[in-house]
Amino acid sequence: MASLPLFLVVFLVLRGGLISGQQNSDGIMEREELLGLFEVLGGLLEDPSWAQDHPQPCDETPWPGIQCEIGDENPPSFHVTKIHIGPDILTPPCKSSASLSSSLLKLPYLKTLSIFNCFLTTPVTLSPSLFGALSSLETLALVSNPALSGEIPPELSKITNLRVLSLSQNNLLGNIPREIGGLVRLEQLDLSYNNLSGELPQEIGGLRSLTILDLSWNVLEGQVPSSVGQLQVLQKIDMSCNMLRGLIPPNVGQLKRLVLFDLSHNLINGPIPETLSGLENLEYWVADKNPINSEIPQFVGKLKNLISLSFSGCGLIGKLPNSLSSLKNLSSLSLDNNSLNGTVPTSLGTLPKLDQLNLSNNQLSGALSLPEDFIGRLGKRLDVRGNNGLCAINPLYKKKGISANLISAPVCLNASGATNDTALAGEDKEPKVSERMKPFGQYPVENNSSGSPSNSNAKMVSFGFVVCFLCLLL
Ligand SMILES: *[C@@H]1O[C@H](CO)[C@@H](O)[C@H](O)[C@H]1NC(C)=O
Ligand SMILES: *[C@@H]1O[C@H](CO)[C@@H](O)[C@H](O)[C@H]1NC(C)=O
Ligand SMILES: *[C@@H]1O[C@H](CO)[C@@H](O)[C@H](O)[C@H]1NC(C)=O
Ligand SMILES: *[C@@H]1O[C@H](CO)[C@@H](O)[C@H](O)[C@H]1NC(C)=O
Ligand SMILES: *[C@@H]1O[C@H](CO)[C@@H](O)[C@H](O)[C@H]1NC(C)=O
Ligand SMILES: *[C@@H]1O[C@H](CO)[C@@H](O)[C@H](O)[C@H]1NC(C)=O
Ligand SMILES: *[C@@H]1O[C@H](CO)[C@@H](O)[C@H](O)[C@H]1NC(C)=O
Ligand SMILES: *[C@@H]1O[C@H](CO)[C@@H](O)[C@H](O)[C@H]1NC(C)=O
Ligand SMILES: *[C@@H]1O[C@H](CO)[C@@H](O)[C@H](O)[C@H]1NC(C)=O
């Protein structure tokens, strides 16, 4: 109970201060700051009488889009620290000619400015004189504003307190200014879904507090700068859907805290540097649709925390590394639409969390011998279609309702595998023949010296026919 009187004292002192502040000046807010707030909101909101309806927006007539804090001056007064316009603040709506008033400069305590879905038709740009001077800002989020266009001004880098910079889903264009690397306190940089072009500046390596870097869905070119490797606390890199090319810089492997790495839909080449084995916390590695055109590195098995590995359409060659089977947390593996050959390691079917396995459209061959419980668990999420050399040894594959995506794999036709498949009833069961004659239905299993046919299905079918024909003659 000792704390109650103390609380009361504090409250009374505070309240007394406020009341006397109100008596001494035009209110419990500096007049200049209050007017600045009215002008800023007047530039944004549809309702012309907003100021009359909220004469004391920090105190007696609050509005959910505004937050204030009491300053420590004497007498204390309120300061606007946050302006937020977004889908959670419905009334009044933004006006169609919404703009950013330079009166923002009258709000020297503003820490957060977030405006979502407000600049829809009348063009708005990021004025250098304005943003260069908002030095108190910690969060600047201007998101989903189709009429926000023009370039990112280098002056933005003068907001040295900035921790969050999100300019996602606008219509910004031009280069990412190199000066941005001076934002040493920046923790999140999200410039996704714009029309930003040019190369990424090396200076980006100066963002030493950065945990999230999202540059996806722009038209960025050139290489991923090696300085990205200096961002020691980075947890998420999303550079997907750009035109980045060249190799992944080896120092990316220094990012010990990286959890997500998405470079999908770019022009990145292989081979993948061995140093990436240092990404010990990586959980999501997405690189779909890049001309990597090399092998899956053996070290992938060292990335023990991987949950999702996705390299669809990357021109991958060579074999599926056995080391994949040490990824005990792997839940999704997408290697479809590549040129992988060799066999499917049975050990993949022992991964306890694997729930999605897409190996379709490759040149895998041999017998697919995955455990029955695995096949049952994945159902249609196991996709091995489009591997002409693959056959199934397990009659379960043929059972109804197991997996439409497996049905296409023919049952391996050797002595023991064939005997119990009803689909074969009536076919020639002479062991010598069934050992050599592999075509089943329209899915011939190729002979190993014709091992890497680039899907010349027709050729293999006719080869199958020739063999059958020879068999009949015998
Ligand atoms: C992006 O920029 C290019 C050229 O600068 C232009 O042709 C294209 O229309 C722009 N796209 C959008 C969505 O603004
Ligand atoms: C796998 O996942 C579990 C639970 O999500 C987690 O505790 C563990 O650290 C992860 N990594 C490895 C290598 O098991
Ligand atoms: C496979 O990759 C090729 C070339 O990369 C592409 O044209 C094709 O659409 C992809 N197929 C699928 C099913 O994604
Ligand atoms: C698999 O592909 C690699 C590279 O394309 C090739 O060198 C190798 O001979 C192929 N192996 C088989 C069994 O087809
Ligand atoms: C596997 O990948 C192919 C593209 O290569 C896609 O068409 C198919 O839907 C995927 N299968 C599953 C089960 O997701
Ligand atoms: C039939 O093929 C499967 C898969 O290659 C193999 O495990 C099995 O031993 C073969 N049986 C005979 C009799 O060759
Ligand atoms: C064939 O099926 C029968 C009954 O389903 C079973 O008893 C027998 O062991 C099977 N033979 C082989 C070789 O799998
Ligand atoms: C391919 O054929 C050669 C010779 O017939 C044989 O020694 C080799 O084991 C075969 N390879 C496979 C993968 O069947
Ligand atoms: C296929 O295998 C047979 C028997 O092992 C061999 O005679 C032949 O050369 C191989 N290659 C082709 C393309 O048929």
UniProtKB/TrEMBL annotation:
GO biological process: response to other organism
Disease resistance R13L4/SHOC-2-like LRR domain segment(s): 156-237
One Gene Ontology CC term in the entry: plasma membrane
InterPro entries noted in UniProt: Leu-rich_rpt, Leu-rich_rpt_typical-subtyp, LRR_dom_sf, LRR_R13L4/SHOC2-like, LRR_Rcpt-Like_S/T_Kinase
Location, primary (coarse class): membrane
Signal peptide extent: 1-21
Alphabetic keyword roster: ATP-binding, Cell membrane, Glycoprotein, Kinase, Leucine-rich repeat, Membrane, Nucleotide-binding, Repeat, Serine/threonine-protein kinase, Signal, Transferase
Subcellular location: Cell membrane; Membrane
Pfam families assigned to the protein according to its UniProt record, in alphabetical order: LRR_1, LRR_14
Keyword Heme recorded: no
Organism: Malus baccata (Siberian crab apple)
Record-given protein name: non-specific serine/threonine protein kinase
EC number: 2.7.11.1
Topology relative to the membrane: Single-pass type I membrane protein
SUPFAM superfamilies referenced in this protein's UniProt entry, alphabetically: L domain-like
Gene3D superfamilies, per the entry: Ribonuclease Inhibitor
Keyword Magnesium: no
Catalysed reactions, as listed in the record: L-threonyl-[protein] + ATP = O-phospho-L-threonyl-[protein] + ADP + H(+); L-seryl-[protein] + ATP = O-phospho-L-seryl-[protein] + ADP + H(+)
